[in-house]
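Handout, tutorial session.
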Amino acid sequence: MNSVQHSINEVNFKTKPIKSSGTKYAIPKVVFEKLKLNTQFKLYHLEDDFNVPCCCAFFLVDGEWVKKDLGVLKQQTGADLLIGIQTSDKFMATNNVIDGIVCCEIEQAHRIVHQLQAMLSVHGSYIAMDLNDVISLFDECPYTQYAESKLYLSDDLTKQNKQEVDEFIDKLPIRNVKNLLLYAHSIESTSLEQFSEIVKTVERKVDDSDMFLYGMALTNTLDYAYISVMYPIEPAQS
């Protein structure tokens, strides 16, 4: 399995992914701020200002979007990716405008946008992905399912959560898949060793995954810790 653990060190995101041997702290401040500006993820609604730029634009499939609106949204924001968030049975096909669909609960929509951005090194992730990895994920898996599970907060996170993580992963149909994205969100300074154990737990549950992406971030956006996965699904057309 391939694990992606590197920082962004190129402004040209259209090139092949480049693994960095340095850290975000080695990047000059002016370049660092530009990278942050150029790697914004945002959830848009029809009434929003599409001239607010981002590199990855999201929209709710349940909204009153039409193809023309979505084309304008992608063009005006300058987004490299346009991702629909599906929270009901309403189906929307991917095409030359829509790059991917994520299925989830409505209360999880903003969390998905936040965590994908947080997994980029310039936005504070402990273990980070490159923007190219996000692009590649949706290139390979245009339809994905999101699932999450809360974690206990303790000094021994791994021991307290081992059974819960095992049961959570066991319930997911992620055998023999091409792509899997794992994210861990903590509100405490969880050690990398503890997170590594969670990654190993998931690795033992997945067979022949040729692209296993993962990241971990520490933020104050929620009052609890959790892990989440995004995995490929076949689109259920309604």
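The second record follows below. Compare its token runs with those of the first.
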Amino acid sequence: MIAVLLALGALVYTAWLLEVVLPTGLDPVRTYVSELAAEDQPFGGLFRATDLTAGLLVLAGALWALRGALRTAPREPWTLIGWGGLVLFGAATAVDSRLPLSCAPTADPECAARESAGLVPAAHTAHAVSSSAAMTGAIIGIIALTVAARRYGRLPLLARTGPALVALELIATGWTLASVAAFEAGGDTYALGAGQRLQVLIVAVWLGVLALSLARERRVPQSRKDGAR
């Protein structure tokens, strides 16, 4: 069930890919992913709903897994840290969906000017905090559970592919942070949207790999039992 929750969460977390077919009016190379869910955007309600659903699915799966890890693997700190990170990611993503931007600052110069002058709702600041918390939790989970898979000899698929995904995630995160800093300093976005979309896509792919790894782990003991009969 944990694998199912995480797989569904990963799938719904990629709902922003609908911008390929929906007339959002936002440039995916320049704009924040979260601007799709801004209050003044035509499909804002849809993207807020998918963010909430994704967050709650991952939160439920991570809490379930953390509970089991506390009972069966209390001496595996990397496992506990990893699931704790995903709990933070899921909870913060759900909260983030309830704190939408009022407008799209990278696409609307007037919105950007109001934001710089502090004339936007407090939700803009709260949204920045919850978004940062969500990505921090995701990175903690990605790194810690990948380390756990390799150190404790579990989840071979994650152990093999996890390091590459960790490296890609850190590169995408560095790109995103540098672009955000440049934009907030009054410069260009430097493909901020592309960097952030790569960042969240890798999170979703990693969650999918984790879900598949967990599903395979559950099948192996059963097949061994059947073979022993």
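Points raised in discussion: Residues 221-229 have pLDDT under 50 and may be disordered.
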